[in-house]
């Protein structure tokens, strides 16, 4: 199954950051068991309860600012540094652990925790500080919102993602439950052409039947092993 690959696309989810101390969404102790996603991850929630929504992201930002990449993040960087393949990381995560691990070609399709977007002029402000609904855009004094994709909104970089998936000869999903579209169907887009599809997750993801190979276990262990095998063919 493994061979020399030329265009590798990784899709990461909250599970890759779990061992860095960041909560996932749907595990028993996950964020959606402690917060109502309908409020903190929706435009309706931001408009009806801005204080709670800002508090939620302020708390996440504080945790994410301190979190450090784990062996799984570092393994992706190691692969990029030791392979001639074109390697891109599509991440559903809003933390910046891939960047902290110096991984290149990272596409945050759900946005980033350290970014605010002006609802008026669209300008992006980067900050790790807490903010409230009273913070205004420096340029046009418009209202600022999390630069994060809420449920029901379009993901970012969709045309670039489409191209990456169309060209990939290896697609690897890491630490994602495979439940949230459109990311959960990226594997089907890749399967349309001859490529190998692999899922690494603590347990079988919901879309495990779409993958050629499913490797269960903690990704801080399984991903470095997988990458070591991959490099034998690079
Ligand atoms: N190693 C491997 N997998 C792990 C680990 C670990 N150490 N810890 C947890 N997991 C797995 C869980 O078993 C679970 O299947 O990671 C997966 C995380 O799934 P979710 O919590 O659903 O997170 P994710 O798939 O990233 O969610 C996708 O949903 O709510 C939206 O925008 C949010 O980006 C998020 C999207």
What does this 3D model show about the protein?
The structure is a single chain. The chain has 234 residues and is α/β, with parallel strands linked by helices. Helices cover 32% and strands 20% of the residues. It has helices at residues 31-34, 37-40, 43-48, 50-66, 71-82, 97-100, 158-167, 186-191, 219-231, and strands at residues 7-12, 86-91, 106-108, 111-118, 124-126, 144-148, 170-174, 196-201, 213-216. A 6-stranded parallel beta sheet has the order 3-2-1-7-8-9, with helices on both faces. α6 (97-100) links the parallel β2 (86-91) and β3 (106-108). α5 packs parallel to α9. The radius of gyration is 18 Å and the shape is globular. The protein starts with 6 loop residues before the first strand and ends with a helix. The protein binds adenosine-5-diphosphoribose. Adenosine-5-diphosphoribose binds at residues 13-15, 18-19, 24-27, 30, 92, 110, 175-177, 179-180, 201-203, 205, 218-219.
